[in-house]
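Re-running Quinol monooxygenase YgiN to confirm reproducibility after the cluster update. Everything else is unchanged from the original entry.
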Amino acid sequence: MTLKHQPAYIIKMRAKPGQGDRLFELATVGMEKSGASDRFVIAREDEDPDVLWNVEVFRSEEAKDAYENSPLADELRDEIIGLLAEPPMRIPVHPYSALPAAPS
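Result of re-run:
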């Protein structure tokens, strides 16, 4: 399977004032625990530290569906929604191109 066939999301979430650190913690833990993602980047806006951007590329459509219907996703979703100042933006996409990770 090539990257171009993997489902992905671009997500933007804005935490309530003072809740940004918890939002970032939950988002990161969720990505690490789920095992559904091939790769992800969670970024914090320089001008507004309560805004989270996430680009998540799933291993497969099946992995994405399994995670989205899992108890972990339900648990995280409920807590994350409670931290948000506004509804999240989630855009389904498929990667067009990406460079491989640089060696460490």
